[in-house]
């Protein structure tokens, strides 16, 4: 027995839903959220920054380095050995040559670790190095 479906009624053909306009709206919303999203880079740790009355914002800071109260160095949410800081800064500076280095050091971190990170940044060719502080 052979059946033919070529005799569909007009009511059966009208049951289809055109989803093209819905896909257009979803695509436009996706583009809107991508364009308006602000991408915040973080060093990966939470530190208690010291207060400073002369604090200024650094809009192009793309290399954030965190030093916690136990003198551990963090870059891109991962712990880095002091001997690897220069190589990491060189790689990140090659990706964005106009960027700057901002060190987010805890107020309990030692000056020795802070100076070692600053020296590594300068050895990597980045001379615009700043220290993150809290504004009073």
Automatic annotation (TrEMBL):
Annotated Gene Ontology cellular component terms: plasma membrane
Any idea which GO molecular function terms this record carries?
Answer: transmembrane transporter activity
Question: What are its GO biological-process terms?
Answer: protein transport
Identify the keywords attached in UniProt to this record, alphabetized. Answer: Cell membrane, Membrane, Protein transport, Transmembrane, Transmembrane helix, Transport
InterPro entries attached here? ExbD
Q: Where in the cell is it found?
A: Cell membrane
Membrane-spanning intervals of the chain: 20-40
Q: How does it sit in the membrane?
A: Single-pass membrane protein; Single-pass type II membrane protein
State the superkingdom: Bacteria
Any one Pfam family match given in the protein's UniProt record, by short name: ExbD
Q: Which family does it belong to?
A: Belongs to the ExbD/TolR family.
Record PANTHER family: BIOPOLYMER TRANSPORT PROTEIN EXBD2 (PTHR30558:SF13), EXBD MEMBRANE COMPONENT OF PMF-DRIVEN MACROMOLECULE IMPORT SYSTEM (PTHR30558)
Tell me what this protein is called: Biopolymer transport protein
Q: Which organism is it from?
A: Thalassolituus oleivorans MIL-1
């Amino acid at each position: 027995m052979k059946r033919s479906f070529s005799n569909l009624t007009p009511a059966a053909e009208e049951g289809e839903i055109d989803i093209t306009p819905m896909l257009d709206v979803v695509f436009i919303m996706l583009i809107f959220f991508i364009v308006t999203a602000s991408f915040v880079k973080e060093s990966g740790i939470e530190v208690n920054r010291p207060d400073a009355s002369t604090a200024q914002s650094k809009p192009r800071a793309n290399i954030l380095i965190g030093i916690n109260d136990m003198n551990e160095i963090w870059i891109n949410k991962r712990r880095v050995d002091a001997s690897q800081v220069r190589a990491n800064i060189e790689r990140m500076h090659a990706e964005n040559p106009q960027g700057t280095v901002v060190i987010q050091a805890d107020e309990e971190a030692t000056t020795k670790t802070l100076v070692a990170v600053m020296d590594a940044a300068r050895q990597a060719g980045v001379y615009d190095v700043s220290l993150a502080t809290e504004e009073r």
